[in-house]
Amino acid sequence: MSQIQARISYAGVRTRDVLVYGADDRYQETFGGELVAGAFGTPQTWIDEVFAAGARAGERYWQLPLIEEYRADMESWTGDLVNFSRNNEGGLVKSALFIQEFVTKPWVHLDIAGTAYFRKVLPFAARGSTGVSHATLVELALAGAKA
Fold first, then answer.
1. Residue 111's domain is classified under what CATH number?
2. What is the H or E stretch that residue 19 is in?
3. Residue 122 to residue 35: CA distance in whole angstroms
4. Are the C-beta atoms of residues 51 and 63 closer than 8 Å to each other?
5. Do residues 49 and 140 touch, judged by C-beta distance below 8 A?
6. How many H helices and E strands in the chain?
7. Which pLDDT score, from 0 to 100, does residue 51 have?
8. FRET partner for 137 with CA separation of 20 to 30 A, picked from 2, 36, 47, 146?
9. Structurally, how many domains does the chain consist of?
10. pLDDT tier at 31 (50, 70, 90 boundaries)?
């Protein structure tokens, strides 16, 4: 079992109802630059809930498709699946497909590679680490606490 597979399995056991997985997939494509993080997940109602929390927190996400045709490139002789792209195509999608394979509850994968660090001073933020997705997670926790 790979480290990432073990973490996902452990998270699936430790959480009650849902899973939010944020990752800096820098070895893959950076999707939306510094201002928009990519997101994958199922079911759509959970994705909508995470996006609404992000909007309340001032964090932007763009939903990306889970393209099943990429799964064939992830087949392995030594394990269930490999968690990398052999041909540098669809790496972000393959990361999400890998997570989907091992999670049995509603989940969202937030790809924060491009949004995790501002490379220059912006009118609304200093240069450096952004802490992106933390405010979204707080909003989700607060919404769950009210339920």
1. 3.40.630.10
2. strand 19-23
3. 11
4. yes
5. yes
6. 4, 6
7. 93
8. 2
9. 1
10. low
